[in-house]
Write a structure and sequence with these properties.
It is a single chain. With about 130 residues, the chain is an alpha+beta fold. It has a domain of about 40 residues. About 35% of the residues lie in helices and about 15% in strands. Strands 1-2 form a two-stranded antiparallel ribbon. Strands 3-4 form a two-stranded antiparallel ribbon. The chain is elongated. It starts with a helix and ends with a strand. The relative contact order is 0.09. InterPro entries: GSIII_N (IPR022147). It holds the Pfam family GSIII_N. This is Glutamine synthetase type III N-terminal domain-containing protein. One of its GO terms (molecular function) is glutamine synthetase activity.
Length: about 130
């Protein structure tokens, strides 16, 4: 068994000789190129909110929850469908989860579309 210092010493020697087999390469940012692209914000939100008679400025006012919730919900619904979604999830952390029950959370998954008696799609996003 090698000690940590012995392994470091061997790695330094190999690096000095140009051998890179034991040297860990830096992480590539390639895996993160799409990070944040599937977020309902900015220009994306503005485009979908305009279809429902609002603008992206609505989201900057914290009162939108009381005044424009249905407009925002319909815009998010349309955006999600265009992204290929067919279910939505309400993710939550119960009260007292912080400090008492570490890491516990819950979720409720629901279908975004329902069908009426005539087999037509009914939007039910509430």
């Amino acid at each position: 068994m090698f000690s940590t210092s012995a392994v470091r010493s061997l790695a330094r020697r190999e690096v000095a000789r140009g051998i890179k087999s034991s040297v860990r390469a830096f992480a590539s940012l390639e895996a993160y190129q799409d990070f944040g692209k599937a977020v309902f914000t900015g220009k994306v939100a503005d485009e979908y909110l305009k279809k429902h008679g609002a603008s992206g400025a609505v989201l900057k006012d914290p009162n939108w929850v009381n005044t424009d919730a249905d407009v925002v919900a319909n815009a998010v619904f349309d955006w999600a469908i265009d992204q290929g979604a067919n279910v939505y999830c309400h993710w939550f952390h119960p009260m007292a989860a912080s400090g008492v029950r570490h890491g516990l959370s819950g979720q409720v998954q629901n279908m975004m579309l329902k069908f009426n008696s005539d087999n037509e799609i009914v939007q039910d996003f509430k």
